[in-house]
């Protein structure tokens, strides 16, 4: 047998072997192989269905959380409006304008919260969450502003007590003002914290002068009121900006 014949026979055997392997693979695909593929597809479909179900649940949970957040803001504004009505009834004339401005902002925010809560049902999750965070921040800033206005009222009452010689009562009232500033800070945007620190310093100076019955206690109290007013105006301007309106020109501090 020549080498050429041997090569031809080997090549033929190789071709037969390759054909046999191809037939075997085809048979495997037609039987067990196709079944394995179908099982793999079934598992994949189940995984996709599970992921879709989890995604649906996550979206539903997020939307329910948004509804709850909007309701929380609405409830806080409702309580704030009731508080403002009470504060206005006993406020001095020169403080009433700021309380009325805060009340108007509360009314406007209630309307916005209600509108955004309705629109959130059709908006994308990201858009709805961003809108809710922005409104929640404005509600908290308004609460901070009202706390400062209440602090002003208490400072004025402390001044009256001090003028009437009731030093201990006046000092106690100023100590209570510190608690009111804590309340304001808990809700205040961070960019206003430096100004709040200045108010705290003025409060400490006023308290010290009242306790010492110093002659400059009136000046210290006026300085405290002035710094508090400046912070209130800054918060008002921030709300003007957030609401997309120009600040009220010539608004008089009280």
TrEMBL record:
Residues 235-254 are annotated as: Disordered. The keyword Membrane applies. It comes from the Bacteria. Residues 34-105 form a coiled coil. The chain crosses the membrane at residues 12-29. Keywords: Coiled coil, Membrane, Transmembrane, Transmembrane helix. This is Chromosome partition protein Smc. It comes from Nannocystis bainbridge.
């Amino acid at each position: 047998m020549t080498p050429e014949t041997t090569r031809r026979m080997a090549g033929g055997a190789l071709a037969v072997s390759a054909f046999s392997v191809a037939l075997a693979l085809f048979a495997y695909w037609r039987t067990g192989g196709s079944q394995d593929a179908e099982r793999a597809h079934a598992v994949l479909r189940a995984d996709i269905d599970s992921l879709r179900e989890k995604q649906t649940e996550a979206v539903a949970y997020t939307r329910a959380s948004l509804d709850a957040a909007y309701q929380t803001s609405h409830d806080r504004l409702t309580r704030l409006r009731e508080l403002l009505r009470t504060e206005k009834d006993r406020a001095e004339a020169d403080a009433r304008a700021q309380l009325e401005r805060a009340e108007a902002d509360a009314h406007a925010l209630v309307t916005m919260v209600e509108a955004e809560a309705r629109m959130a049902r059709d908006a994308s999750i990201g858009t709805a969450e961003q809108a809710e965070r922005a409104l929640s921040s404005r509600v908290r800033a308004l609460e901070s502003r009202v706390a400062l206005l209440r602090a002003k009222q208490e400072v004025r009452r402390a001044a009256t007590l001090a003028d009437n010689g009731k030093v201990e009562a006046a000092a106690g009232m100023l100590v209570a003002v510190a608690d009111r500033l804590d309340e304001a800070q808990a809700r205040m945007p961070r960019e206003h914290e430096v100004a709040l620190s200045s108010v705290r310093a003025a409060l400490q100076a006023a308290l010290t002068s009242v306790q010492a019955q110093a002659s400059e206690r009136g000046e210290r109290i006026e300085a405290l009121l002035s710094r508090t007013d400046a912070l209130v105006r800054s918060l008002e301007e921030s709300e003007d900006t957030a609401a997309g309106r120009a600040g009220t020109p010539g608004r008089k501090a009280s």
